[in-house]
Amino acid sequence: MNKKLILLTAFVFTLCYAIAQRVGSSPEYIKSLTADWKGERFADGRPKVSDAILKRLKNVAMEEAWGYLRGQGYQNQYEGNWKIINPDSVMTGRVITAQYMPLRPDFAKLIKQQGISEGRDSSGGTNSWPINILQPGDVYVADGYGRIIDGTLIGSNLGNAIYANSQNGVIFDASVRDLGGLKEIKGFNGWIRGDDPSYLQQEMLTSINAPIRVGRAIVLPGDVVLANQYGTIFIPANLVAELVISSEVTALRDQFGFQRLKEKKYLAGQIDSRWSDEIKKDFINWINNYPDSKLPMTRKELNDYLKTHNYNE
C-alpha cells in the first residue's frame, strides 16, 4: 500500500509540474540563473545593468571582450558569421531570449493555452509575445535553429514594434522578411542568418526568457550583448562592468604604448611584454596627466581600478 501511495504521489507531483510549465520563465527562475548579480533587477527578474555601462560597452573591442570572458572561464559566449542589416553600427543591450522549434500541433496548442493563461495576447501569432515584453535597452535574441525559408521571425511590421518598445534591434539564429522595410526603420538593426520573402510557417515559439543556444554561444536572459561588424558576444550581467573598465584601461595602455614607441623611448619588446617597474611608473605619470574630460570612466573609477590591479606598487 505504501508503495502504491508513493507512486501515486510521484505521479501527481509530475502531473502538476508539467501543468505548471510556463512559456515565460518566472522571475524566481531568472534570478536563480543570474544569482551572481547583486544589483537592481527588473520585475521579470532580469539584472538591470545601467544604461551608462551599455553606452560604454559600445566602445569595447570584440577581442577585448572575448579575452576578458575567456580569462573568467566563459569560453562559449561568442558567435560570428552574421548577415547584419546595418553593418556600420554597434548595438548593446539587455537580452530577452526566445526559442523556436519545428511545429508540432499538440505542443503548439499547449503553448498557446499556457501563454494565454499567463496573460499573453491571443489575437495574433505567438511570435509577437517576446516583442510585447521588450523594454527600452532590451535586445531580442532568438534561437530559430538557423532556418531561413519559412523561418522568418519578423517583417517590417514587427520590426517597427520591436524598435518602438526597445529602441534597439534583434539577434536571430533565423531569418527575416521584408529586409528593405526593416532597413528603413531608423535606429533598428539586426544580426540574422539571412532573409527570405516567405512567411513564418511550420515553426512555433516554445519558450521566453529561458537559456538558449545561438550558434556556438549559450545565452541566458539578462545577459548583456555586444554586437558589431565583428560578431556578437553575450556577457553575464555580473561581469559586464568589470569587463568594460578592464577594456578601457587596456585601450589607455595601448595609447600610452603607441605614443612611447613613436617617441622611441622603449623598444617594441619592452612594450609588448610584461611591463617593468620603470614603464609602470611612466604609465602612472602619463595617466595622471591625462585630461579627465577625455577619460571613458570617472577618475575615481580609474584610480580604484589601478589600485586594485597593483599599478601603483
Would you write up a description of this structure?
This protein is an alpha/beta fold and about 325 residues long. The chain folds into 2 domains: about 35-235, Glucose Oxidase, domain 1, CATH 3.50.30; about 240-310, no CATH class. Helix content is about 40%, strand content about 20%. The protein has helices at about 1-20, 25-35, 50-55, 60-70, 105-115, 130, 155-165, 180-185, 235-260, 270, 275-290, 300-310; strands at about 80, 85, 90-100, 140-150, 170-175, 190, 195, 205-210, 210-215, 215-220, 225-230, 230-235. The strands form 2 sheets. Strands 1, 2, 3, 4, 5, 6, 7, 8, 11 and 12 form a 10-stranded mixed beta sheet that branches. Strands 9-10 form a two-stranded antiparallel sheet. β4 (about 140-150), α7 (about 155-165) and β5 (about 170-175) form a beta-alpha-beta unit.
